[in-house]
Design brief:
This protein is an alpha+beta fold and about 325 residues long. The chain contains nine helices and 15 strands. It is about 35% helix and about 20% strand. Helix 5 crosses helix 8 and helix 7 packs antiparallel against helix 9. Bound molecules: zinc ion (ZN).
Amino acid sequence: MLDILAYLPAKKKQTPSGWLSFDAVCCQHNGSTKDIRGRGGLKATDQSWSYHCFNCGYTASFILGRSVMFKARRLLTWMGVPEVEIEMLNLESLRHRSIHGIIQDRQQTWNTLAGITFEERDLPPFAELLTPEHEPYWEYVNARHMPADFPAMVQIENDGIHWIRPHVVIPFTYDDKIVGYTCRFLDNRQPKFISDSQPGYVFGVDLQPADWQHVIVTEGIFDALSIGGVAVMHNTISDAQARLIRSLGREMIVVPDQDRAGIELIDRAVELGWAVSVPDWPAGCKDVNDAVIKLGRLGALLTIMQSREISKIKIELRKKALVKRLRT
Ligand SMILES: [Zn+2]
């Protein structure tokens, strides 16, 4: 694969956490003056790299298995990588795509036809791929049953301006692009999440298991990650989000959080004519992620399928039972 390090300027420094800093290559192409103070940063692994410039703010990243996107292509060009090398990197990367990638391509065509698009966004500066070496962060996502192959990220480098609260970064992807992200803070302070999200976005649409006939619609990112569902990230579903979920062409099963706010999601599901599941989970399980932690992914999935209701009357009964349970 293309060795990006071979194209870096000769003069560079390495930080303790593995970032290389060197004179940024981007600024003069973005209307800023050329960097001479080593404000460009790059961190690379075998499978990915990210670039961030603290002079003009340019960022770009690459993950093996995904296309080389516009911003990464520009960066490589500025570094002096020949066009043909960039094309080879792209082809090689796409060869690493799984069956999910192929399904995704089909989904992409569909979405273009349906007019569903999101713009490409930047990840936070210095976000890097989360690996077992990032111990407390890795333990956190494992405890919440995030699939091991999901490219979560961390941001441990102090950017010199802000003191960074410890957090993991969950990239929002769509059509093979980064279209936003959420930071989940691990220090028990508020807010728990800070997100950059676009209207109508639904997390996990591009992560759906290829052979499922259903799509499990949840509220939270970790609910979706742990069960293989999607997350609307609120206790309602906007019209644009409903369109995006429908474009999957599967049967929708809405699984609300079992709290007061979840009631609203049930009403919205009924309005949309989607199935609802309110399983009788063990005490202390308030949402899908709790259930997966307690029962395992398959166990939680079974409870969801068993409690799936389509008839409005039966959903209404389930809702009443939940309201009653919440009061006691
Ligand atoms: Zn720059």
